[in-house]
Q: What sequence folds into this?
């Protein structure tokens, strides 16, 4: 089973709202990732968690706040977003971060900021 | 830094045609190479991968061979179907440490449309 699940599938929020995206995997993977993907572009890495600790933050604005409550769950808390933050948000996981290990992606949450 | 260059699309083919999507890379050392596919409205799915020179990855009729001498990982399929219509991303993951450790570097993606 190589499934990564994400909820919600779609999200519409205003610029003053607070919302959260959720990602879950039960493959025993110890690395988890958040990506942002704009239309017709490749995914852009936002954050990496390794063994439940934040290991990479790609200079993402503080209105995006990641959280890894346990080894199976990854959240992305959203607050005071801008319309340009509208995108597909993808979660991924891998056994570890070595070069041979495959990242498995979830189906994404399509976010629209009004 | 590391980079991946894919042939520009979109690519439009008739069903049963031969497919090639070119991918070349620049990286230090010997990275792992991946092809991901993204169907409309979905996330990315791993299509195939290769972790060392001369390895051939294959899946669902797609193949790609890791060519170190030409730093390439071209995707091929002998006979495409309408259901293969999607966006294809070539990607690499470096085997060196430093700031790129553990990160996937993607190409720009190639849109493939297959007509009946």
A:
């Amino acid at each position: 089973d190589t499934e990564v699940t994400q909820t919600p599938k779609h999200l519409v929020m205003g610029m003053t709202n607070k919302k959260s995206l959720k990602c879950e995997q039960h493959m025993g993977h110890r690395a988890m990732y958040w990506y942002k993907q704009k239309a017709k572009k490749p995914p852009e890495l936002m954050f990496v968690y390794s063994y439940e600790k934040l290991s990479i933050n790609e200079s993402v604005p503080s209105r995006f706040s990641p959280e890894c409550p346990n080894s199976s769950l990854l959240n992305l808390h959203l607050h005071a977003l801008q319309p340009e933050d509208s995108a597909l948000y993808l979660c991924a996981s891998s056994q570890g971060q070595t070069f041979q290990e495959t990242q498995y992606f979830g189906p994404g949450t399509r976010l629209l900021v009004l | 830094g590391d980079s991946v260059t894919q042939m520009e699309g979109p690519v439009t083919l008739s069903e049963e045609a031969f497919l090639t999507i070119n991918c070349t890379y620049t990286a230090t050392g010997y990275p792992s190479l991946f092809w991901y596919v993204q169907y409309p409205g979905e996330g990315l799915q791993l299509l195939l991968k290769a972790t060392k020179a001369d390895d051939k990855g294959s899946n669902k009729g797609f193949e790609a061979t890791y060519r170190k001498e030409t730093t390439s990982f071209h995707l091929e399929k002998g006979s495409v179907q309408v259901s293969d219509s999607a966006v294809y991303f070539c990607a690499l993951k470096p085997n060196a440490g430093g700031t790129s450790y553990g990160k996937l570097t993607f190409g720009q993606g190639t849109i493939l449309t297959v007509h009946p």
